[in-house]
Amino acid sequence: MAYQCIVGVGGVIIASLLGFVFMYFNSSLRGLKKTRTTENCVKKTGEGDVAGATDIIIVGAGVAGAALAYSLGKDGRRVRVIDRDLNEIDRIAGEGLLPGGYHKLIELGLEDCVDEIDAQRLLGYVLYKDGKDAKICFPVEKFEFDVAGRSFHNGRFVQRLREKAASLHNVTLEQGTVTSLLEENGTVKGVHYKNKSGQELTAYAPLTIVCDGGFSNLRRSLCYSKVDIPSYFVGFILKNRRPPLANFAAYILADPSLILFYAISSTELRCLVDVPSQNVPSVSADDMAHYLKTLVAPKVPHELYADFVSAIEKKNNIRIMQNRTMAAAPHPTPGAFLIGDAFNMRHPMTGGGMTVALSDVVVLRDLLRPLHNLHESSAICKHLESFYTLRMPMASTVNILANTLYKVLSAPSDPTMEEMQQACFGYLRLGGIFSNGLSALISGLFPRPLSLAFHFIAMAIYGVVRLLLPFPSPKRMWNGAKLIWVASAVIFPLLKSEGVRQTFFPLTMPAYYRSSFSSE
Question: What is the DSSP secondary structure assignment for residue 435, as one 8-state letter?
């Protein structure tokens, strides 16, 4: 009996030892196999890059690129950002962030990027016309956080975003100029670029996101680009001045130019003068200074007149920027994606560009989160098609408002457009649901296309009723009909360019439901 117990215990010990040895060798073989697989996946390209070491390449480190790099890096992606110039930029574009854009910064964890750059709170707009004013107040009191618009030096804001992205160990920023996309059998595999020293290199990643700005040289293969330039902004800075109403941007509706004033720091007031594309005077020949002094300065508020003229006379203070518009018309390409101003632009008069860009970053981040294998390029390309529908509430609302308001509020070209401008100005002065509803849309906090349609219809009715009063004579009825016709000619092409079905009936779009796809 004792002998049998000894044999049984010995058998158990021997079996345990054999099992331990088997498990050890099996684990070693698995580790070796995994190492070999990794070595096969991550290989040197011979051009200094490592294929498989990067999950996503981002071309451009502006507002969209830097914010996207940070958000994807926070999700654990290995991100490589390539931008032509990582120094602080000095430009007159992208200086205003709507409250809706600031709310998106909070969603991305980037709200501190407006700190320590002397950014100014922006609570709304004031429109001035013929000695009267109409105030547009953003509905920020409904939010717990310090949600408000911000205005600042664009370069300072972008540098803060870049610093935030670079603080993540899995995000790298590199200065270089991307010359072309690397495409194989219809799928983008990476980019060709020149580094800071001019050396031609290649970077590889299963997904390349292009957001290199309004002058992108890569978007031609990723969208059907048709860029329009309706006007130019002539910009300069008034030192040690504040806007007529603190924390409000001022819009002077005047002929021949729309004039904007807003603070970009505690001591600097930005002035932008809108000049139609066909009438841009030369800066070098002092024609622009003459134009501003003789035709624009008399329309400037009295308290700003002297500083306005002084800023014009200051040497090298006047700068010009193209106001570019481009409807979103994507050409889905496996392995590549397009966002930011490279993809979609609207007139900058409402300052909605960065708000749309940050909203797009949030949508794209959320779509990429469940995807574990980015190498399934065709499936991911199909999945990301839902982006173009999911972005529409914010994008279409801001785009249509910006382009419509510019056409209506810029210098009128005929009596009917003048009547439209008067109708818009009077509608905003009504207050209540009328001005509050429009301000909620303009702010980007409540982007609802159906609400936008309601206000356009209500504004048109207001304009017609205004023309018919006090008695609807045949001439007044004819003018009312012309107002409806011109208003339709303004709004319907914009609705068509945004996509009526995507904007107002997104649930009828098949791509809307592709966001449920996930890659294992």
Answer: H
Q: In this predicted structure, what is the pLDDT of residue 225?
A: 86
Helix (H, G, I), strand (E, B), or coil: what is residue 458?
helix
Four-CA torsion 27, 33, 35, 36, nearest 10 degrees: 160
Confidence (pTM) = 0.88
Cβ 361 vs Cβ 352: under 8 Å: no
The ranges of the chain with pLDDT < 70 are 1-51, 513-520
Q: For residue 198, what is the enclosing H or E element?
A: none
Q: What are phi and psi of 172, to 5 degrees?
A: -120, 135
- CA dist., res. 121 & res. 146, Å (int): 10
Are 289 and 318 within 8 A, CB to CB?
yes
Half-sphere exposure of 498 (CA within 13 A, CB side): 29
For residues 188 and 151, the answer to whether their CB atoms sit within 8 Å is: no
Q: Which residue has the tokens 């504040």?
A: 242
Residues 264-305: tens digit of each pLDDT: 999 999 999 999 988 899 888 789 999 999 999 999 999 999
Tens of pLDDT, residues 99-145: 999 999 999 999 999 999 999 999 999 999 999 999 999 999 888 77
User: Cis omega before residue 256 (within 30°)?
Assistant: yes
d(CA 184, CA 363): 28
Please measure the distance between the N-terminal and C-terminal CA atoms of the chain and give it in whole angstroms: 57
| 3-class DSSP state of 397 | helix
Backbone CA torsion sign across 79, 84, 86, 89: negative
| pLDDT on residue 361 | 98
d(CA 503, CA 512): 12
Tokens encoding 7: 């044999």
